[in-house]
Amino acid sequence: MPYTKDIVDVQPLDGYRLRLRFEDGAKGDIDVTDLVPFEGVFAPLRDRAAFTAVRVDPDLGTIVWPNGADLDPVVLYSKVTGAPLPGAERLRHAG
């Protein structure tokens, strides 16, 4: 399994955007609407108060919400830094 860089800080911004900082110092903003539909476990996050209750879970190394929703830190790191997702190189050469 590839090394995952943990998220160490999260700040809610306007709309459904978050500012993330990773343990290696990488930081940037993501728009959660680009990542997930607000359905299922993510449906309660349509409410601004619920969305802004996001926090970092140091044991998981990623962001979580009180209702149990979380996002994969590997995907978030890729979105923030532009780094390819693990396995993307293999898939590109498979076609």
**In terms of structural class, how would the helical and strand content be classed?**
alpha+beta
User: Biggest sheet, open or closed, and with what strands and sense?
Assistant: 3 strands, antiparallel
Strand order in the sheet with the most strands: 1-2-3
Number of helices: 3
For the termini, the CA-CA separation is 23 Å
The number of domains is: 1
Write the H/E string, N to C: EEEHEEHH
Q: Which oligomeric state applies?
A: single chain
Question: What does this 3D model show about the protein?
Answer:
Helix content is 21%, strand content 24%. It is built from three helices and five strands. It has helices spanning 48-51, 73-81, 88-94; strands at 7-12, 17-22, 27-31, 55-57, 62-64. The longest helix has 9 residues, at 73-81. It is globular.
Describe the structure using short key phrases.
21% helix; two-stranded antiparallel ribbon; NE0471 N-terminal domain-like; globular; alpha+beta; 3 helices; 95 residues
